[in-house]
Amino acid sequence: MQNGQYISLALYFLLMLAIGFYGYKTSTSDSSEYMLGGRKLGPAVTSLSAGASDMSGWMLLGLPGAAFLAGLPAAWIAIGLTVGALCNYLVVAPRLRVYTETAKDALTIPDYFGKRFDDHTHLLRVFSSIVIVVFFTVYVSATLVGGGKLFESAFGQDYMTGLWITAGVVMVYTFVGGFLAVSMTDFVQGCIMFVALILVPVIAFTQLGDNVNLNEIFASVNPADSAKVEGSLDNLSMNLFSGATVIGTISLLAWGLGYFGQPHIIVRFMAIRSVKDVPMARNIGMGWMVIALIGSVSTGIIGAAYVIQNGVPTEYLNEDGLFDKETIFIALSQILFHPLIAGFLLAAILAAIMSTISSQLLVASSSLTEDFYKLFLRRNASDKESVMVGRICVVIVALVAIFLARNPDSSVLDLVANAWAGFGAAFGPVIILSLHWKKMTMPAAFLGMLVGAATVIIWTYTGLISGALADLYSIVPGFIFCWLTVFIVSLFTQPKPGVLETHDVVDGQMKS
C-alpha cells in the first residue's frame, strides 16, 4: 500500500529540488537576489509564498488536532489569524515595500531597523538579529517535529529519520536557490495545501452518512474510544462559544497580532515587484487563507465525527497506546484515499512544513550574514562571499533546529505558539509605529523590542504569572507592553532629522 505513497513523495521531492536549481541558475548572483529575489516577485507568488510560509505544519497537524478535541470553538484561532493577516496587508505591506528600498535598499528586517533609525551604534540591528536567530531556530525545530511525526505515523519510519529527510531536502533547495527558490517552492506548496485542505474534509464528510448531525454524533462518543485519544472527545461542540471564557477567547484571537512581527512573512512584502501589486497579492492571499483555514478546522471536526462513528484507528496509536490528535489529517488521508492520492495528501503536510522551514532558514541565515558577518567581521565582503556565508548559515541553523526537535513528544502547536508570540510581541508594534509615526525614536524601538521579548519569556517560562492571567496568551501582554514602551520612550527622546526626511519620501511615494 505504501509504494504509491512513496512514489508521490519522491516526485514531490524531485520537483522541489528542480525548483531549487532553477533558482540557482536565475537569481543567486548577488546578496539582493539570494536574500530578496531581486525584489521581482509577482503578486501571486508573493501572496501564496507568504501564506504557505505562514501556515506551517500546524495548519495540517496542530489546528486540526485542536479542532479534533474542541470542535468549532477551535475556529477562534482561525478568525484571529484571518483578521490579523488582512490588517498586515493593509497596514504594513505597502509602506514596508517602499520604505525598505528607500532606506538604502535594506535587505533584512534588522537592516531596515538600523537604517530607519540611523543607528550607528548597531545596538538595534544586533538585538533584533539575535531575536530573529533565537526564535527562528525554535520555530524551525517546532516545524521539524511535524516532519518527524509524519514519517513516524504514515510510514512507520524512525522519528529522527523523518527529521533528517525533511530538513535535508529543505536545506538543499534553500542552500542552492536562495529566496527565489524558496518563494517558488512556497507557491507550489501553497497550491498543494489548498487542494488537500478541500479534498480531505469533503471526502471524510461523505463517509459520515446521510442527514449528518454533528452534535448528535459528538453526543454519542464511546467512553472507551475517548480514553484512547490524547486528551478527550467529551468536550466536542458545534457551538462557537461553548466553554468560552473571556481570557480564552482573547488568547485565541490574539494569534492575529503575531502577523505584524513575523520576519519570514513580511519579508515577502519587501520583495514584491511593486507597491501597486500589493492589492492583488492581498486579494489572492486572503482568499487562499480563508478557504485553507476553513478546511483545516473542518478536517479536525469531521475527523472527530469519523473516529466516533468508526472507532479509533488502532494502527495510528502511539507508544503510549493513544491516538495523537495531531495526526488526524494523516489518518484520514491513508484510510480514505488510494495510496497515490494519499501520497499527494501527505506531500501537502510536507509542503506546509517545508515551506515554513525554508523561509525561516533563509531569513535567519540572511540576518547572520548581513547583520553579524558583514557588520562585524567582513564589512567589504563581496557578493559572492556573502552568498556563500548565507548558505553556510542555512546549514548551521538547520542542524541546531534538528537537535532541538529531537523530542517526538513536543506539541507542534505549543512550540509554534511560543515562537509566534515572541516575534509578534518583539517586532509587531515596532514595525507598525516605525512605518506610520515620524516621532518614533531608536531608543524607543530598542526598549520596545526588549520589553516585548522579555514579557513573552517571563509569561511563558518562568512561572511567575499565576491565576487566570497565566492562561492569557503571552503575545497579548507582550504586544501591549512593547507598544506602550515605544510610545512613552519616544515622547522623551528626539528622532534624528535624516529619519524624518526618509519618512517624507515614503509618504510621497505612497500618495502617488
TrEMBL record:
The gene is putP. It catalyses: L-proline(in) + Na(+)(in) = L-proline(out) + Na(+)(out). The keyword Ion transport applies. PANTHER family: SODIUM/PROLINE SYMPORTER-RELATED, SODIUM_PROLINE SYMPORTER. Keywords: Amino-acid transport, Cell inner membrane, Cell membrane, Ion transport, Membrane, Sodium, Sodium transport, Symport, Transmembrane, Transmembrane helix, Transport. Belongs to the sodium:solute symporter (SSF) (TC 2.A.21) family. Gene3D superfamilies: Sodium/glucose cotransporter. This is Sodium/proline symporter. Its main location: membrane. GO terms for molecular function: L-proline transmembrane transporter activity; proline:sodium symporter activity; sodium ion binding. One of its GO terms (cellular component) is plasma membrane. The lineage of its organism: Bacteria, Pseudomonadati, Pseudomonadota, Alphaproteobacteria, Parvularculales. It comes from Parvularcula marina. Catalyzes the sodium-dependent uptake of extracellular L-proline. Pfam families: SSF. It is a multi-pass membrane protein. PROSITE patterns: NA_SOLUT_SYMP_1, NA_SOLUT_SYMP_3. It is found in: Cell inner membrane; Cell membrane. The chain crosses the membrane at residues 6-24, 67-91, 123-142, 162-182, 187-208, 240-260, 281-308, 328-353, 388-405, 417-437, 444-466, 472-492. InterPro entries: Na/Glc_symporter_sf, Na/Pro_symporter, Na/solute_symporter, Na/solute_symporter_CS, Sodium:Solute_Symporter. GO terms for biological process: proline transport.
